[in-house]
Amino acid sequence: MARVLVPGENRRHRLMIYTVSSCTPCKRAMVFLRSNSVEFEYMDIDRSEPDERKEAMLDIGDYLPVSGVTLAYPIIIVDELSAIVGFHEGKLKRVLELG
User: Fold this and answer.
1) What is the structure's pLDDT at 25?
2) CATH number at residue 56
């Protein structure tokens, strides 16, 4: 599965979300973003081809510290600058300026 674009009117920030298809927090994050009309891309890691999965894991690694972070999904890359690990509605509201 390649990256999928979910269009939205709110394009202030560029979001890439790495998910697992059976992950409840991943589904909640995507519902939250859709309900706020935020445009984002996502990729289901578990439904991806091995080469796509390897590339995604390298991309994710660029945004996480070497140690001290437990890998949890979703992993939300914001503006290619930082990552939010897990679904944290309050943090997303602040980062995306959703008032």
Assistant:
1) 97
2) 3.40.30.10
